[in-house]
Amino acid sequence: MVMAGPPKSLSGQDVGSFAYITIKDRIPQILTKAIDTLHRHKSEFFEKHGEKGMEAEKKAISLLSKLRNELQTDKPIVPLVEKFVDTDTWNQYLEYQQSLLNESDGKPRWFLSPWLFVECYMYRRIHEAIIQSPPIDDFDVFKESKDQSFFESQESIIALCTHLQELMKSIEDLDENQLKDEFFKVLQISLWGNKCDLSLSGGETSFQKTNIVNSLEDLKPFILVNNMEQLWSLLSNCKKTREKASVTRVIIVLDNSGFELVTDLVLADFLLSSKLATEIHFYGKMIPWFVSDTTVRDFNWLLKQLKHSNHKWMSRCGVDWENHIKTGRWVYLDHMFWTLPHEFSAMSQVAPDLYAALQKAHLILFKGDLNYRKLTGDRKWEFTIPFHEALNGFHPAPLCSIRTLKAEVQVGLPPGQGEQLTAAEPTWLTKGRYGVFQFDGPL
Known about the structure:
Order of helices and strands: HHHHHHHHHEHEHEHHEHHEHHEHE
Number of helices: 18
CATH architecture of the largest domain: 3-Layer(aba) Sandwich
């Protein structure tokens, strides 16, 4: 029997699909907001850099306006021109996309090409417009909305930090079942933290309004795949069999900054304090990405905000977390691969150094929707295809996707469940209302 290849990529060709709406409406909105942000910072650029700052602002705006026009008129996708560490890799990928087209199709276009590719390309072109405009070439057009989202989620962040600090007082006294319950709680906090996503809202502020800790029971029915037990058994076995000098490394591939990042840091702190892990490696993005994704600047900024907070438990978290960084129990890393358009099954070829680093982990947690799309290749999978199969050979170490659903791809569901959800709630795949802990264990 001939095995069929993987299904087609999601793309803007399917009129009315979420991919189509994103390319038609959400991405132009994000570009317009980026242009407005540059415009509003005009006087700041002038104060800092004089006439050169004004010229740079005009140049960046004109490059972004050109990009918006290309997108809205479905022009061919053009190679990157400004030299950066990843420029050649991007342009090779663009050539590869072109090679997949029939002769008659000509060049890859916005609505015809895979959605994952064109969406990543759009953010990479925003970065190109900025780096082509010195002296404002380190300006993050999304920083303002990321910061605002953090400040607007302040009450929820206080509640989280308080929950964690209260838990820390008694963590040594918890028996195994109590520890497991608390582990499941911090996992769910990290999952629902993923609802705050600025690219989903077209760059409009999105913040956490409620105390997430009190909502966990109510949210449980919305977890469609729940492999938390497997995570517990993996990490508790590591803890039991660990020699004094040996290490249990958990890698967290981050998604959004702000509130979601706090939920991830709460999880990471719990893993250390409970001795379920001895070190945590975080991976963020090298450049501003998908509006609210975490960069090293966002990570350090957040720790500073917490540390200097007037609230004692927030401040305590900031001090503790900075200390984890200083002592090397937490390590923040980035890599250009996370902002390439490739699905993760290509990582071992495209970024063998990153793949080798991931292989050293006992567990990798992939946060958020974009990571899920890249894990599964962002394809039109049947809902029932096993997660392991959709990973298409990507398995550096045991891994788990922790995501709320914001794209029309979901695998590993029991027969009939996807269809039932579609009948009851047509937008269940894209509203961020449902979540998964989807685990692919030791081979």
